[in-house]
Amino acid sequence: MLPFQTLIPLNKTLALPVYRQIANAIAQHIRNGILKPETALPGTREMAETLDVHRKTVVAAYSELQIQGWILVTPRKGFYVAGNLPELKPREWQQEGTSGYGKQMSAPFHVLAPDYQGSIYPPNTPFRLIIDDGWPDTRLAPLDLLMREYRSLLKFKYKNPVSGAVTAGALSLREAMVDYLSETRGIKADSPNLLITHGAQMAIYIAARLTITPGANVIAGIPGYNTASQLFQHLGANLLSVPVDEQGIDTDAVAAICKKHPISMLYVIPHHHHPTTVTLSPARRMHLLKLAAQYNFAIIEDDYDYGFHYNSAPYLPLASGQHDGRVIYIGSFSKSLAASVRIGFMVGAEDFIQQGIYLRKLLDLKGNHLMEDALAILIKNGDMSRHLKKANKVYHTRLQHLTTLLDTHMPGVVEYTVPMGGMAIWSQFKVPLKTLSAHAAKQGLYISDGSFYLVKNACRIGFASLTTAEMEEAITILASGV
Predict the structure, then answer these.
(1) Could you give the domains of the chain?
(2) DSSP 8-state code for residue 430
(3) Separation between Cα atoms, residue 332 and residue 447, nearest integer Å
(4) What average pLDDT does range 431-438 have in this prediction?
(5) What are the pLDDT digits (tens) for 5-17?
């Protein structure tokens, strides 16, 4: 007789019922080969006495095991481990609850990035302050209004669990965005031209997947948004890089490439380029549209934080011009509201959007239509416009405060150009950034060590998410490490 009292340790303080603890332990020992097929188990009374539990508890555990197919119940004979289980060799006994996962997977799988270590975001370490890549201040967002509408919809509209949800996104939001995009960005589109996504990154993936075939030539700026470049290469693109200067992507360099190679797609960030924060000049916008028509390639226009421009009104997107459907326009409400509001969107020709809907369905059947409906209400009643107007004033003040702090506390240490908008400053450091990042971490401040941006000793200093007091503390910590 096996020592079941030792093999089945019980903890009656756990939320997991005791009968489930017994069933799980027996199933684990069957999996591990300790209990072999057709092995007889103690009767319910005997097992109850062994484990010092009520007989009904054992009855319930055996019933659970029988339902799951681990054991068989033979009338007048007893309980037996099922005989149709594969032969398993005994392994070293493991404590109940020990995970079966380690650092490596035994089965083969596709390694996409052998050297991948992380991203621009801080690791799972608690920091008092975070200098991020350029994110909004959630404390300013009208999340209370958004959740008010969400709760209202949940209470009245969604009593029937079967809603009219579709993969393209809530119709209410797509219809609200038709007027919103026209009024704020000059983009003329109808609801069939819109696809709602789970953040802008999903939209970039879908657009890239539909415009890239293995070996296709794709143009992107350098330095550029590294995650997008990795995506294009993952999809098999031949990535052709062109310089980015103070007027944005170099369109003369684009034209030179187009004369030599057939181009499938060009990726551009027209406002507050990532990472350098420069804005594409009007002349170059017109040049890009001319080149796209001349050489017939698609443009993915990633306008991730269009709503934040401080010294003047933002330039109209390429998508607002004449482009014969070649421009795929991408935006996000994650930047307008909060990073946790994962709602992005894509605007394109109707046939392109139809294929995008098909691909989105393969990734995620549908989004959070309740949240999308709530957001549509905020857009229609003007709450979104009022929030952006208020946030622009606050962020502009924070940008000015940050530049003052850098000039006062770190003169000659950080070089930067004040951006026209956005939520971050592109900063070139004259001291080792990795050393400075490590120094800051010891004092509870996170700042990127710059490795993500692929530019030596440079990173983005996000200012929008920090109050002036938080900013002062952060810069004081950085200055102490110089």
Answers:
(1) 4-81 (1.10.10.10), 129-139+386-480 (3.90.1150.10), 146-156+165-381 (3.40.640.10)
(2) S
(3) 24
(4) 94
(5) 888 889 988 888 9
C-alpha distances in Å from residue 337, one per residue of 43, 136, 152, 185, 375? 61, 7, 20, 18, 10
d(CA 168, CA 197): 8
**Mean pLDDT rounded to a whole number for the chain:** 90
- Residue 381: alpha-carbon gap to chain centroid: 28
**Would the CA dihedral through 240, 241, 242, 248 be positive or negative?**
positive
From CA 271, how far away is CA 314, in angstroms rounded? 8
Q: Tokens 């940008």 appear where?
A: 399
Which tops the pLDDT comparison, 121 or 325? 325
Mean pLDDT value of segment 277-296: 96
387 φ/ψ angles, rounded to the nearest 5 degrees: -65, -45
Q: What are phi and psi of 86, to 5 degrees?
A: -65, 150
Decide: 421 and 278 in contact? Cβ < 8 Å.
Answer: no
Confidence (pTM): 0.82
H/E element, 41: strand 40-41
* Cis ω for the linkage preceding 223 (within 30 of 0): yes
